[in-house]
Write a structure and sequence with these properties.
3 domains; 2-enoyl-CoA Hydratase, Chain A, domain 1; five-stranded mixed barrel; alpha/beta; OB fold (Dihydrolipoamide Acetyltransferase, E2P); about 45% helix; elongated
Amino acid sequence: MHVLATSPRGARALLLATLAAAAAALSGSGGAIEPARPRVLLLEVKAPITTGTAEYVEAGLARAKAEGFQAVAIALDTPGGHLEATREIVQRMLASDVPIVVWVGPAGARAGSAGVFITLASDVAAMHPASNIGAAHPVLGGGEDVEKQAGKEMARKIENDTAAFARSIAAARGRNADWAEKAVRESVSATAEEARTLRVIDVVAPDLQSALAFAEGRTASRTTGAQIIRARDATLTPADMTVRQRTLAFLSDPNVIAILMMLGTLGLALEFYHPGGIVPGALGAFFLLLAFLSMKVIPVNVGALVLILAGVALLVVEGFVTTHGIAGLAGAALLAIGALFFIDKSSAEYRFDPALLSLSPWVVWPTPIALAGLLGFVGWKVARARREKLRLGAPGMIGEVGQATSDVGPDAGEVFVHGELWAARASQPVARGEAVRVREVRGLVLHVEAAPNRRGVLP
């Protein structure tokens, strides 16, 4: 019988060969570990650019860095917005350590005005085939030319500043700076294909995943060096707005501010009508607080605010003083005029697109009329109540009808009035069971008289 002897070196060689064979078998069976899919944080900007939007984007970029996302995707569809808020967003995008892909979509979306700057500031810019970009000329709140409202020098200053802003962003990202300047100075726009041909964007993509696939392997320049983008087949994690961000975005609507002002003053007016109600006054103060907070978000005409407050004051006066409706009509008129001029369109600090800062006719006209009608109704009820006789205390007993529960004469008697038994006196005798009417109250004694053809109810 023969035994095969193996040296230590031969044993090691045999072990290595066995491990190599096992690895090959594992690879052939498809058991290799695939690399993890990249994670991309999704921010959706589908509204006018406001202070709330700026906070939302800033928070998203900070989260992407803290949680190790490979990229940030911004799905953009905006008509424009607040230029100062746009500057904040662009500054955060240019300083971001995480690569940013902007996709203007879905079909019919636009990157108007402020959206131009956000698209230019991205590392990879993509657009849906049926989207457009452009028209970034600065205008005032109502769409008026800056020169007409703020003067020629101010208009030139604002335009030059905004054009330089657009050129600097385009140059930083290697895009067409000349077109970016024309978008500001001449309000030019472009379709998706035109924007790609003009080197305004990088690719036309039918969906966000296609844009991310295009971004795969491209280089994002950073101060710390070049960074390779990993975004193909990424796992998208949507980032929702916080309550604060949603509130700021909601309060940026001038229609909301006007309604809050009117509701706030209405609540205070009702508190004046009926002191001690607490709820109307508390709600009124809360609405006014929200309105004043909103005024820090968009420009408000102080004169128009004074007109609205004066209009509410006249409506309050109508409830306390008989003016035959004159004060009420004047108050309603002041409310309507104040609503018309509520936005400060001459403020050169705030440049919005024309459609973003205008009050809806459904706010300008029906709301003051409805408030005037409500306050007028309340005032009429208050005035009517004041003309009625008191129903509490001694004065409220005068004229009340009851029933004699015993014979009532000049010296003694008892009657049932107002659900209670009272000591009573009568100058002319009244028999038990007869109806009586109260003529006078002296202390705790009622002075009554017979009430012919009236019936009382005995307890």
